[in-house]
Protein 1
Amino acid sequence: MKQIAARGSGRKGAFALAIGAVFLAGCTIGPDFTPPPPPTVKGYVPAGETPDLAPGGGEPSQRLAPAQAIPAEWWRMFRSPALDRVVREAIASSPTLEAAKATLAQARQAVAQARGGFFPQLDFTAAAERQQGPAFALGLLPSARQGLPVFNLYSLGPTVSYSPDVFGLTARRVEEQQALAENQGYQLAAAHLAITGNAVAQALAIAAARRQIGAVRGIVADDEKTLALVQDKFAAGRVGRNDVLTAETQLANDRALLPPLDQQLAAAQDALAVLVGKSPMEWGAPAFDLADFALPPALPVSLPSALVRQRPDILAAQAQLHAASAAIGVATAQMYPNFPLSASVDTAALATTSLFDQSSLVWTLAGGLTAPIFHGGALEAQKRAAVDGFRASLATYRQTVLQAFGQVADTMRALGHDAQLAAAERHALDAANDALDLQRVSYAAGKVDVLRLVDAERSAQQARLGYARAQAQRYLDSAQLMVAMGGGWWNDPALCSGCRGKDARMEGAEK
């Protein structure tokens, strides 16, 4: 009766310890993360310096549209079916996006693994042993002649172990892994934005290079005509050899402009092939031309308070900051006691045929406490390191926000300068064409020499080349502004599924 009472008392003590530990659960140690407050600035450039995107002079006008939502497929604003096909192919075939998706899936599995700490761990064990020694619990008694008996011992049964999350160690670990997974989700969005932005940029670079190559070829053709005229006059004895050399030099100099432009075109074509996940040998870029694109008349611009909730690089930095905050909680919780609980129900017998007899049943229920006492300052150093890591992540977040604002401001200013440049180049082209017409009439009447005609043709062709560059830059900077705004990725369900704060970001982007 005393033995039975002792066993009952032990069972009650273990249950009391388990219940007490469970009641203590829910006290989460460490700081609770709060996202940094939105910026107080209302714009990107000083008041009164908002760029004017209406160049006039027959050039297409643009305007900044603060209240306009950014579409997920922002590249369709250029109204080029060929561009849309290329961008979609890049999204579908890019190894960079494939790697980002796999990394995100890996991070999500790490979250699931961390969440396993909230639940009891159930295992099944089986053992077969051969022993020598007293086994009173199994009913074996040693004989005087044989000494200690030798016997086989078989056991099998389930084992349950559980550590109540008393001070929030598991919760903080899950929180940290969730923040890291969120960071990877934003890294995927950033990779998507980089792929689409670079694909558009390379397509526009192809169109710009082809337009400039066309202009240079026009210059070369005019040079060849001029040289032929000079040679005819030289043959007739009307001009000297120096005029012929001058025309030949001009032709050679203008021909030298073509190889660098051809290289720019080839590099853009090769880069676009890589973006769509193909080698340059097996994939050829479409023959993009600036005439195939439409300059977006309205360019959406989000407020700074919305930009920090929609740019993936800023959100990734915020998620990394969240993970650093949770790491402080992990380091802090490791300085507090742990209360491991375990239970097992086994059957143990000397023969396998007796394993399932009721008399072979053996069960245990245990509860414990593990409290750190002295670790040589390691736990305190670990916590201080986590705090320092949070400070570093906070500084990185602030720098990311500042760089984003600077990028938007630079692009907005560039668009204003692009409009001014396009108007100036258009005026220069019109003036050069008028001057060329006058020189041709004068040359036909014999009032001017051929060199003045050559100069007029060169000025006209160079103005055409500068105008082509100015046109292309307006398209490129328009695309760059969409990238700087975040590209509307939060409106794509494939990218934003499971994103925290999705509704808040969308709401902020529309305000």
Protein 2
Amino acid sequence: MDGKVLVLNENYEPLNVCGWRRAVGLLYLGKAVMVERDSQQLHSPSVIMAMPSVIRIAYQIKRPLPRVKLSRESLMARDQHRCQYCGKKSKHLTVDHVIPRERGGTHSWENLVACCPKCNNRKRNRTPQEAGMSLIRRPQQPRFLPYLNFATMRQALQNEVWRDYLEPFAPHLIAE
């Protein structure tokens, strides 16, 4: 996550990910405190400063808890960019309605899965049972992740330094 900084609320709850310029501005204004440093340094004519990796806002930010929005990006993140019929991992996946919309299937978390074009063509406008196919995992709405969108959270968990701050809020993602 080069140039990215994890922003925590006063109580260490993840709020978002921002660029290092924004993070340095918050630190300079006293609105945030550096929690973790990067190995790189920032140089100015008068100051040398460690590059922030994790900062904590100096005051509690109260926000309503958002819901995980249904989008192609978050659907692919939920399914880990794998076809839910054959398990093939790819960046070129389609979105499949498990129960076709013509047959009363809804456009919802519980009825949408990532699907490779080959399996999508094989299934066509049928249910998985009619096509002789089975789902690897039953589709469901992902659990809420405080403030970070689902795809950002998955990507952020790859950063070892951030992992300790994110794991308490997404233990189910660590286990997958």
